[in-house]
Predict the 3D structure of the following.
Amino acid sequence: MSEAASTRTPVALLPSLAPLLHHWLPRQRWFAGKGHPVTGFSLVAASELLPLDGTGPGLLHLLVRVQQPGLAAGSSQDCYQLLLGVRETLPPHLAPALIGRPAEGPLAGRTVYEGLLDPRLAELILERLRTPGSLGPLRFDRFDKAPALGGALVARPLEAEQSNSSLVYGDAYILKVFRRVQPGPNPDLELPLALARAGCGRVPAPVAWYESSEPEPYTLGVLQLFLRGSQDGWLLALDALARGRTFTDEARALGRVTAEVHTALADELPTVMLRRPQTEILAAAMTQRLEAAAQSVPALLPYAPRLRTAFDALAALGRSGRVWRAQRVHGDLHLGQTLRGGGRHADGHWSVIDFEGEPARPLADRRRPQPPVIDVAGMLRSFDYAARTHRPWNPSWAEHCRTAYCEGYAEAGGADPRTEPELLRAYETDKAVYEVVYEARHRPDWLPVPMAAIDRLAAT
């Protein structure tokens, strides 16, 4: 941190920004507390990535805890990463990035804006990532096997991000900036790094990253190779449906890829065995989520008793002595988390991305070893979602994909998920229950999609 930064009073900084953040933060796509009032802010850490005292732009890095008492326990004081640009005046091309002008405090009269939308400041972040080292509480690091970063690269924001923000540098690299951060290693750095060290080519290797070391360790951003020209698995599935063709070759290839990733993770990171106590805890948690979901979405109530039998059957197997291996997994696997390169052929090179897991879940839960079937269940549900977007609905399309995916998984050395139907049904039911709650809250028009799965799973 510069001398000016070290003498700048953090106590005065946040109160001057608070009126602007009250208005700006809830409107951001990545803000998790929408619909609940913000009652205050507290400053976790502050750094000047580019000093604020010159005539040019400055870049201020903040970790800010947002107080929202109406949220669930553990979420009422979420911590967010902010990268704020500071200028005397904002040029016209940065007008959409405007946050406001503080009326008092150390930034009084200056213009504060979203720094990631400023190409000049975005390029500065890449420069910081070129060389490992520290800047105040921030630490920058690189993967020892990664090639040197290329020359000057123009940055552009990736519009598709929801829970985070991403910058693409010259179609060569992509930087994911985590917005809602929690103490501890983020799986989106931890797992791809482990896979890169294991030599698994199915996941883009981290090139560099930055973290905060004080007051607690936070993973803040990860730079990876940008897979230029790759095609999103979800969009490929929708295109196949629109053209009236099958997707079974692609599904089989995705099954093989999933098994390869699971095998590499199991080889590289510790695994555990789920015995009776762990299985009963797992089944009880699934049952608890079902009961809470049924209270939240009344359409689930008629199905709840039959859905509960899936979790009861899992607990009964645990009591009978059945054990399962648990390992690190993707945690939120679906078609949108896959990319295919190598042209239009189904057997082109597939990659898996976004190992963060479900962002709404606590970090400790996302890092906990799970049976690999949790990822399988997520992908099976994704085939169903794709099929349901097409009119008329073609259930056989999804069923053929599900079969091919499981076959591909077994072909690549994974245990065929269909050989343990109780485990697969429990995880798929749990996933469908989660989907029902999500759609009811955020996309009511999509609620019939998971409800159709609920109807099917309840009849199993």
The chain has a mean pLDDT of 91. Residues 3-225 form one domain. The chain has two domains: 3-225, 231-458. Residues 15 and 105 are 8 Å apart (CA to CA).
